[in-house]
Amino acid sequence: MGILNVIKPVGMTSHDVVSYLRRLTGMRRIGHTGTLDPGAAGVLVVCLGRATRLVEYLVGYDKRYRVEITFGQATDTMDGEGQVIASGDASSIDEQALRRVAMDFTGQLRQVPPRYSAVKVAGQPAYRRARRGEPVELPVRQVRVDELRVLRFWPGEHARALLDVRCASGTFVRSLCHDMGEALGCPAHMSFLVRLEVGPFPISTAQTLAELAQLGPERLAEVFVDVGEALPHLPAVAVNQAEAEQICHGRFLPWAGLTDGQLVRVEDANQGRLLAIARYHGAQAVLKPEKVLC
């Protein structure tokens, strides 16, 4: 069981990374915690073995991206992989205007996901319908952008800018680039993207696929992320051997001192090994296991 912080390379889908790790380790139970587009690179959190049962507690983390936006062209996919559907001269855009618009795109925003995305429409990913030429109507969703900084700006007919984005899970950076172009009166698309952080997983501690291959399956545990680091929002509860046996059998454990409804990591007091994710039920003063991992 383990959690890996992986750098997904450009040109691979998130599922491609999972398939690669299955071949490397010989394990079937492997899953990622959040899709990253094939044309993008960066942090992809992957769970192996029993750790796949933790995916639901890892999917909602905030994200940080480095993104390049190119003005003067809009594409059907809203990124550099698509077909150009609108063109215009971006020479009139200057850095000050871009910075003013960037301020308008922070906070709570209403956003329409790209047609070419994995968002489900009538049970199917939107991109499948779009590729078949079917009409795709995606509902407006509420997203949150905490920070949007202009790092560099290159003026011209196809002006470009490099941005740093911190946002909530579920925010589409492609849509953000497209909408900023519309606000500036010029077609635009996302021409480069790298994911720098997923919650507590920074790119500085991530492993490339080549590094993982060099380690091999025998030494992969050396770069597993500690569960406490991976789930810092869940406080740890240490239990003795008798209590551990109860938890491992899925039984309720009498407990006190927690907030009703609170989720916790239940760990072995001797080894610090994760045994379960449990929820505290205040009315009964018990810990109820939700995910047993022992």
Distinctive features:
nine-stranded mixed beta sheet; Pseudouridine synthase; Archaeosine Trna-guanine Transglycosylase, Chain: A, domain 4; 18 strands; about 290 residues; about 35% strand; single chain; 3 domains
Give a written overview of the molecule:
- This protein is of the alpha+beta class and 294 residues long.
- It folds into 3 domains: 2-61 and 200-229, 2-Layer Sandwich (Pseudouridine synthase); 63-195, 2-Layer Sandwich (Pseudouridine synthase), CATH 3.30.2350; 234-292, PUA domain (Archaeosine Trna-guanine Transglycosylase, Chain: A, domain 4, Roll), CATH 2.30.130.10.
- It is 21% helix and 36% strand.
- The chain contains 7 helices and 18 strands.
- The strands form 4 sheets. Strands 1, 2, 3, 4, 7, 10, 11, 12 and 13 form a 9-stranded mixed β-sheet that branches. The chain has a 5-stranded mixed β-sheet with strand order 14-16-17-18-15.
- The N and C termini lie close together (10 Å).
- The model has no long low-confidence stretch (mean pLDDT 93).
Write the layout of secondary structure elements.
Layout: E1 2-8, H1 14-25, E2 30-32, E3 41-48, E4 63-71, E5 73-75, E6 84-87, H2 95-104, E7 107-111, E8 120-121, E9 124-125, H3 126-131, E10 141-154, E11 160-167, H4 173-183, E12 188-198, E13 201-202, H5 209-219, H6 227-230, E14 236-239, H7 241-248, E15 253-254, E16 263-268, E17 274-281, E18 286-292
Parallel strand pairs: 3-12, 14-16
Antiparallel strand pairs: 1-3, 2-3, 4-11, 4-12, 5-6, 7-10, 8-9, 10-11, 12-13, 15-18, 16-17, 17-18
Helix pairs in contact: 1-5
